[in-house]
Structure to design on (310 residues):
């Protein structure tokens, strides 16, 4: 068995996937994920901060050990919004290489969208492909949100929205529990981005378009809806969430304090703050583009990176 490894160094979460690829399908061998909040503070200082740097290097050292133990043939590590924007990213990349042996490739928002599409398409069953004429894929990260419009087995358009859950939280959430003013501020920040996106996709969306969400916000919403005690990829992948379900979830979560949210079943404590902007973004997105249902994909960038290894 020839094993490869993909690493996604995101603004909020670091993820590792070790697997074998056959006929454009991934056979998972090892999957790990840790929340390190690498992008925390970048909005205000433009720099990666010491605490998340140390946490991230610790996690990457663990990943490096796993890669060695599985005798992986090729490794591809990609970094997204946090590393793209931080003024001290070169120093971080150098430390990671020196201390863990992992070489990091910083990818653009456009590249991120392409790899996300590759990962998602590889995982979709034929039933989804037959039922829907087109796909609108949203990958919401900590510092940016990538989107892809896909139809007739080809990508028609793609782009990157310059906001994510860490940025939205830092800009808009000022009280605990969140106030109506906080939610209003979130909407005021989110809606202009949706209007900009509408210029690209509004005319293409119809009743035959399927909305797919990938990455931590959407998988967390699925986990909450499923009331999972531990993260289970096989249950989360392709789980459906209705707009009415998300509104009910918001009514509950928005009324809770941060500490209370940490005890919500299915919600990892490390995401108890960021789930507020993530959920509100999802609700406004579905309302704005008139989607009643969202399909959650646990496949995305990480799987696309693994498939991209030559």
């Amino acid at each position: 068995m020839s094993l490869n490894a993909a690493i996604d160094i995101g603004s909020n979460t670091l993820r590792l996937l070790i697997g074998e690829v056959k006929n454009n399908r991934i056979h998972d061998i090892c999957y790990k994920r840790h929340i390190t909040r690498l992008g925390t503070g970048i909005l205000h200082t433009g720099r990666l901060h010491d605490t998340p740097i140390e946490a991230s290097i610790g996690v990457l050292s663990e990943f490096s050990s796993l890669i060695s133990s599985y005798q992986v043939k090729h490794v591809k590590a990609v970094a997204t919004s946090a590393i793209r924007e931080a003024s001290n990213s070169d120093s971080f990349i150098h430390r990671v290489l020196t201390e863990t042996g992992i070489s990091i490739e910083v990818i653009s928002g456009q590249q991120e969208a392409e790899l996300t599409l590759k990962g998602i398409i590889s995982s979709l069953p034929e039933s989804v492909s037959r039922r829907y004429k087109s796909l609108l894929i949203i990958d919401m990260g900590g510092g940016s949100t990538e989107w892809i419009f896909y139809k007739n087995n080809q990508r028609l358009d793609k782009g990157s929205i310059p906001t994510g859950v860490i940025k939205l939280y830092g800009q808009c959430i000022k009280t605990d529990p969140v106030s109506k003013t906080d939610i209003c501020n979130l909407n005021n920040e989110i809606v202009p981005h949706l209007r900009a996106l509408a210029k690209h996709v509004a005319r293409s969306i119809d009743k035959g378009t399927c909305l797919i969400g990938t990455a931590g916000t959407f998988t967390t919403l699925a986990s909450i809806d499923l009331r999972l005690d531990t993260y289970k990829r096989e249950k989360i992948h392709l789980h459906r969430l209705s707009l009415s379900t998300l509104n009910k979830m918001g009514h509950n979560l928005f009324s809770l304090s941060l500490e209370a949210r940490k005890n919500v079943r299915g919600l990892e404590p490390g995401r108890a703050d960021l789930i507020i902007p993530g959920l509100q973004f999802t609700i406004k997105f579905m309302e704005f583009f008139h989607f009643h249902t969202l399909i959650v994909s646990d496949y995305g960038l990480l799987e696309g990176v693994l498939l991209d290894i030559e």
Notes: Residues 180-201 form the longest helix (22 residues). The radius of gyration is 19 Å.
